[in-house]
């Protein structure tokens, strides 16, 4: 299937597209053909926005999210509660929490999670920056909001130890039955957590 | 999930990635985070190769495939049989036929196929260029090698009428049981074709 006789710019494009996560050889080829044949304007836009994003974006000095400036808008907002620090894996997770309109504190974006299976260890995640941030003397609660996957739980466990050793108060998002769901369709592990963490109504 | 507060270069990148076929909002966001966080070099490469490919590639004046020059290598090869013209949907299909080492003729790459459901009609595919190419006085057989999907078959049917009206000899790749497969696992439609087109061993 690979195109040994493809013109160099086409072969280079297919190779570069394969660096996108979840894109294999066939998808990359299909994407290249599609862009060149049906959406050259989209290809130009994507090319420019990639170069532009890599050049202009950096990490917020406080929360580590992507930003064009030194410190992002959320961290600069004086109305946010600086005593609470919510730790998330990605900016997408932060957006979900913001969308719940139930958190007024600040964030730290890990930009990843521990994954021993994928060879992602503590050194690959900037825990040093998180520790520095969490021990600023103002933060008095670190809320762990990593995903409830194996990797997210591993990360939360590791961070709990790390934070507690520094005398920080650590909490984790509650596990339980999702709002609007029927017990019949909820997995047994979730039911077990919901029972264990049951509370007065 | 959408990031209303994302810095402009990040939002622009996510939007541009969504133009890739098969990439939705979540995948685009994941791709953007991955490139920015873990592979900025890959992002730069992809950006440059997109711009480069759109600038340098054009269509072969004879077979319509992507090429950096006026006429591609295959079309210029004097050892190819100019009396046979094989019509394929994409360069990937052409590569598969080349890999079979059983065809010495020339090609015409449609760069698409008819798809009434997706609103792709005869005007969107360059049938005019194919007709011009097929009626050069040298070609005496047009081999239709579009896919054996609904769209590919529709395209083949349409081209058969078009070519026959010009007095051209048209053939279609044989349908039948794939080499190496067990009948038990072959679909009934294929078995039906294999029976209909049965031949002396």
Automatic annotation (TrEMBL), chains A, B:
Keywords: DNA damage, DNA recombination, DNA repair, Metal-binding, Zinc, Zinc-finger
Gene3D superfamilies in UniProt: 3.40.1360.10, 6.10.250.240, RecR Domain 1 (1.10.8.420)
Pfam family, one: RecR_HhH
InterPro entries referenced in this protein's UniProt entry, alphabetically: DNA_Rcmb_RecR, Rcmb_RecR, Rcmb_RecR_Znf, TOPRIM_dom, TOPRIM_RecR
GO biological process entries: DNA recombination; DNA repair
Database matches in SMART domains: TOPRIM
Key word Nucleotide-binding present: no
Membrane-spanning ranges: none
Gene Ontology MF terms: DNA binding; zinc ion binding
Toprim domain boundaries: 83-178
Positions annotated as zinc finger (C4-type): 60-75
Similarity comment: family membership: Belongs to the RecR family.
HAMAP family for this protein: RecR
Purpose: May play a role in DNA repair. It seems to be involved in an RecBC-independent recombinational process of DNA repair. It may act with RecF and RecO.
Protein name: Recombination protein RecR
Organism (species): Pigmentiphaga aceris
GN (gene name): recR
